[in-house]
Design a protein that fits this description.
alpha+beta; single chain; nine-stranded mixed sheet; 22 helices; 649 residues; globular
């Protein structure tokens, strides 16, 4: 969710932020310059990594055939954090507040490292986190699910305890659908973000999401709003579902993976490679076919959140001539990456980025290279959203709060994160668009797949980069319904560096990208298999990884459904579904019950799973602890790194 400020958290008003925003921007850039130059030569021994999963708490009512989002985060977080507070950095799990009271963010207490056996502990750690949260839900009708979008968020009577949506009192969101009382109660950041996005935009946020047209869906379909909801009526589109709250965006869940690179150059490479992988990973993990009680014609949450976090004014959107703003801004602050930042990616930056000339000059004059300078200056076209009085008067030499104020509210597909002052954490890159899955097995599989790809890219010095304009096109395709099977994606034909060909990329199916095209292209899993074949892996870890990659293969080939397709099919085959695109409370109850049984392992689900029976365990066996860090080992053990064997010559 971003940086949570501690200490004096008295929030500035919107008007006060306008007074201070230039101070924050200027000093944010100066802080970056000073800190970057101070730590740019920092090296760490090994790549480290970890995941974050946002969980939803539910309450079932069997008699009424209804299920609600359980608003209980403020009552549970202190208990969940107790062990970590007593033994910082020594616990198996870590917990953080999230945007709403029905959400909780979990992560491993300590990062994973280069030991290949760590892949066998990921799923076990995810299970432990789920069990910890479940242990605090005392009622048998309460449960925890991991899914990206709750199907009826924004419908009436969606929460427990029940909430009356007093629209006149929703000063943060002004939503007609979701009460501000749903927002996290433990830290002011969350409500401040919602309020400042709305105020900066100078109107309510909204998202118009295409309806899934079924046989009995009205034509045209028009979403219903009250007559006095003037702002909402202005933006309604035929055949679209209307949403009007940041909560319906940032109240979605996701699976994020963060990597600590060995140094700055490696972090910049990781950033660029993962920017290319982002739409591929998003389409593969699609799990969001419903919003506000309707089936929609997209499968992921990304565009919906992007629209609902869009604080651009009409001037910045290009709807009216520029008068008070400096330039038009092409995207929401919740959007895909706009430029590559490594030397290898520079020539592929074929889409213009906007920035203030004075900000760029400040960075260049301080010796920051042009690519990094443009990246940072582009981040700073955004205004600060959540500002606290205790954080205004801080130094520029060893503080980065002003920089992080902007960096952490640029919610892009990939985020570049400098080391935080006062810690031994290194340069990090965060992959953000992966959709949450129902089971720990699936979530662990996606994490393992992405991390192994990272290992392969660094070990063999591979290059996935294609023009940024093609990455953007891939993002547009990745959100579409059944994108895995129905869309083609631009992808690099040859993964070796230094192969500058006029036709270095082409459109491929997801099956081809992941599983390969015979001798022509090995596929990403083919490259991973080659990498694994050169490692000394214990039997249990190899078994577990094999099952994870089998899942990814099956999702890419269409042999296995994405979670989005499974949910859509479940709804459309429900006996009470009227083929009108409506997901009723009863249908949702049966869906959530099914999801809960799948999560608990009570229902087999061959449509979703390859083989969920892994050898995952909490402990790295003693025999594995003596292994060398695998990134270093693979580099040293393969003289010449024969990438020709990977069909990437």
């Amino acid at each position: 969710m971003g940086v949570l400020t501690t200490g004096d958290c008295q929030s500035l008003t919107y008007k006060e932020i306008q007074v201070w925003k230039e101070h924050i921007k200027t000093h944010g850039i100066i802080q970056f310059i000073n800190w970057y130059n101070k730590v740019k030569d920092t090296n760490h021994d090994t790549l480290k990594w970890g995941d974050e999963i946002e969980m939803f708490m539910l309450k079932f009512d069997k008699n009424k055939k209804s299920v609600k989002l359980l608003l209980k985060a403020k009552d549970l977080l202190n208990t969940l954090q107790e062990a970590e507070n007593q033994n910082p950095g020594q616990t198996d799990t870590a917990w953080r507040p999230e945007f709403t009271e029905y959400m909780m963010e979990s992560s491993p207490g300590m990062p994973y490292g280069g030991n290949i056996a760590h892949f066998n502990t990921v799923e076990a750690n995810m299970k432990l986190r789920r069990e910890e949260l479940l242990s605090l839900l005392k009622q048998k009708d309460e449960f925890v699910v991991t899914m990206s979008t709750y199907p009826r968020l924004g419908c009436e009577d969606t929460f427990y305890p029940p909430l009356e949506n007093k629209v006149d009192e929703n000063d943060a969101t002004r939503s007609i659908y979701v009460s501000d009382e749903v927002l996290n109660q433990l830290h002011p950041r969350f409500k401040n973000l919602a309020k400042m996005i709305t105020m900066r935009k100078e109107r309510k946020v909204y998202a118009e999401v295409p309806i899934f047209r079924d046989t009995n869906t009205p034509s045209p379909f028009m979403d219903k709003v009250s007559d006095d909801a003037v702002e909402d009526k202005e933006v309604l589109l035929p055949d679209h579902v209307h949403m009007d709250s940041v909560t319906q965006g940032l109240g979605c869940g996701c699976l994020q993976v963060t990597f600590q690179a060995c140094n700055v150059p490696e972090a910049r490479v990781l950033y660029d490679q993962q920017a290319v992988l982002a739409p591929i990973a998003m389409a593969l993990s699609a799990s969001s076919p419903c919003v506000k009680g309707y089936l929609i014609d997209t499968d992921t949450r990304w565009n919906n959140i992007s629209m609902l976090c869009d604080d651009r004014t009409d001037e910045e959107l290009g709807k009216v001539p520029l008068k008070t703003k400096q330039f038009r801004i092409p995207k929401s602050r919740y959007g895909s990456v706009d430029m590559f930042i490594s030397p290898d990616g520079e020539k592929y930056n074929d889409t213009p980025v906007v920035y203030r000339d004075d900000h760029l000059k400040l960075l260049l004059d301080a010796g920051i290279d042009r690519q990094m300078a443009e990246h940072v200056a582009h981040l700073f076209i955004r205004d600060p959203l959540a500002v606290y009085k205790g954080q205004l008067d801080i130094g520029d030499e060893d503080e980065t709060d002003h920089f992080e104020n902007i960096n952490s509210t640029n919610w892009q597909t990939v985020r570049f994160k400098p080391p935080p002052p006062g810690s031994d954490i290194g340069w990090r890159v965060e992959m953000r668009p992966i959709e949450t899955q129902l089971t720990d097995f699936e979530n662990a599989a996606y994490v393992t797949f992405i991390v192994l790809l990272t290992r392969v890219i660094l070990s063999y010095d591979l290059n996935l980069i294609i023009p940024m304009s093609k990455v953007e096109e891939n993002m547009k395709r990745a959100v579409k319904r059944d994108a895995v099977s129905e869309q083609k994606f631009y992808f690099r034909k040859n993964l070796a560096k230094g192969k500058d060909e006029s036709d270095e990329y082409e459109e491929m199916t997801m099956d081809e990208i992941i599983n390969g095209k015979g001798e022509e292209f090995p596929g990403l899993i083919g490259v991973i298999d080659f990498y694994l074949s050169h490692l000394d892996i214990d039997v249990d870890t190899r078994c577990t990884i094999t099952q994870y990659l089998k899942l990814i293969r099956g999702r890419a080939s269409g042999e296995l459904m994405t979670t989005a397709k499974y949910i859509r099919n479940f709804i459309r085959s429900h006996p009470k579904y009227k083929f009108d695109s409506v997901v009723t409370d009863e249908i949702n109850y049966d869906l959530m019950e099914k999801c809960a049984r799948i999560t608990k392992g009570e229902d087999t689900c061959p449509e979703l799973f390859a083989d969920p029976n892994t050898k995952t365990c909490h402990i790295v066996h003693e025999s594995c602890k003596k292994m060398l860090e695998e990134v270093e080992k693979i580099t040293k053990s393969l003289p010449g790194r024969k990438t020709s064997e990977l069909y990437v010559q």
